[in-house]
Structures are given as structure tokens and as C-alpha cells.
Amino acid sequence: MAGAGIHPFHQQWPPAAAAPPPPGAPGTVAVPPPPPVPGAPGTSPADEVRTIFITGLPVDVKERELHNLLRWLPGFEASQINFKGDQPMGFALFATAHQAVAAKTALQDLVFDAETKSALHTEMAKKNLFVKRDANAVDQSKRLRTGGDYTHSPYAPPPFHPPPPAVSMWGTAGYIAAPPPYNPYAYPVPPVAMTSPSPVPGPTAYAPVQNTKDNPPCNTLFIGNLGETVVEEELRSLFSVQPGYKQMKVLRQDRNTVCFIEFEDVNAATAVHHTLQGAVIPSSGRGGMRIQFSKNPFGRRKDSVGGLSGVLNGVSAN
Question: With left for phi above 0 and alpha for psi between -120 and 50, is residue 117 left, alpha or beta?
Fold first, then answer.
């Protein structure tokens, strides 16, 4: 049935939206375009931001320290440190924007100095770091460190290797074995020829001696019948090789020379008393030695004088 009105169930379409006013029309506000996304389609490689801004560096940081940290990152080209007051600020330029973003993520919250516990904070810079590529006109005031020589060939940085973990990797698959502990005796040492000492000559001869009076056995021997010209070294070379020998003392008087020899014990002194009785010393010139047990052995006190002095005081008694 026809009518002038519209059926109540008929769907009405909403009115068409009005076209936006042209830019610059009265009553409109200019909205700036969004910043270009690094690496987005339509962005020129020359215009994309490839530089990261680094803060959190210690106040005594050196250009070389920052350069050595960044040089292993993929795409790294140059670095520079500027100071705002006493606070250093670092800048790092990379080959592409993607490599700059990756470096920013890798360096974020990285502990740069273990002593000061300073951690790095990174963000994308507002513009790229300027690099002078003319090798003949280097601006030393910029203190710029680059990753390579741009005047000959493009820089190809080495592959990035993350630092190893703090745990020990000795013995783990893929790592070299731990070196053996240092042994100073492991190296071959050429043998050194050792010259054997010349044998000590024994007494040349024996001669009978008058030894009718002797003292009780002790550890000290009295050597008599020695000439004034007797050599002490001959006596020492003869008695020092005897078992139990300890010390010897030669006493030269006006017209007589005597000797006292101490041994470890009475048995050693008794053995020498028998074996060397009457032995002839070439430099003596008086025939065979007369060996007796000393009346005052070493260490026995006499007249408040001990040791060797006590023995020498009893020379006349022997």
C-alpha cells in the first residue's frame, strides 16, 4: 500500500561524513607529521638515524675505552665523547639504523665500570654523528674515533662475540682443556759434570812413640810430639775425615806445638786413638804423633773456664 510516509521497519543509512577542511582553513590546527621510523619504507638511508646516545659513563672515561667496547658491535663505524660540565656523553655511529637499534638494546643497563658500578643508558640520538672522511683534514678537537679507514675501502668490522659468562669453562665441550699446573722440573736440564774431590792423603808412615802415661778415655784427644813447622791444614785434612769428628784447635807455644780434637763420643775418639797412633806428619819433622786422651775434654769446666779454654789450661797436665 502506497503512502507518503516511510515504513517503520525501513533501515535508514547514517548521513555521510563531511569532508575534512583543507590545511590552513580558518578554525583548523596544524598537526606535525609523525617522526620517521628507522628503516621504514619511504625513508632514505641518508636521512635515517644511525647514531645512539650513551650516558652513565664514569667521569674519568677515556675515548679508547668506549671505542674498544663498541668496536665489536655489528655495523659500528665511529664513536665520540662530549662533556657537558663534568658529565661525559657518548655517541656511536653505525652502518644502518637496524644495527644502531640492536646496539642500543645490547648496551642498555650494561655495567661499564665494575668499581663504580656505573651502568649505561642508551637511546637513539636526534641526528647522526658527523664523520670527516678526508684523511688529510682530521679535526683533532672532535676526538673522534672511527672503526676503519673510509678513504680506501668500506669498513668491515669483525663479527660480534658476546663476552663469556663468569663461570669457568675449563673442561666444557667446545673449549680448550685446562693447562696443566706449572712444574719447574718438567723441562730437561742438561747434566752438569761434577768433579769428585781429590782423596785426602793418609799418613805416609808410622813410627813408634813413647806413650806410657795416658788419661781415662773421653771424647777429646791430645796430639803431641808435633814440630814447630807442622802445617795445620795437614792435621785438619787427616782428622776431619775421621768418623765423629767435630772440631780441632792447634796451640803453638814457644818451642812446642800441640793439638786438641773433639769427637762426637768416646767410641769415635777411641778408634782414632788406636788407628792413628804414631802416624807421621810430613811437615812435623819429629817422627810419629803421640795421641792421648785429654785430661780436660771439650765442654768440661776447669777453674771456672769452660769449653776450649778449659782444655788449653790443662795443656801442661797432658
Answer: left
> Which of 11-15, 94-98, 209-213 ranks highest by mean pLDDT?
94-98
Statement: residue 288 has pLDDT above 60? yes
DSSP string, 221-234: EEEEEE-TT--HHH
Which grid coordinates are listed for 1?
Answer: 500500500
Residue with cell 780441632: 248
CB < 8 Å & 24+ apart, contacts of 106-113 = 106/73, 107/52, 107/54, 112/56, 112/57, 112/58, 112/61, 112/69, 113/58
Provide the whole-model pTM: 0.35
- Whether 75 has a pLDDT exceeding 50, the answer reads yes
- If one counts every other C-beta atom within 10 angstroms of the C-beta of residue 237, the result is 13
Confidence label for 185 from pLDDT (cuts 50, 70 and 90): low
Q: Which residue has the cell 777411641?
A: 270
Residue 136 bridge partners (DSSP) = none
Cell of 19: 569532508
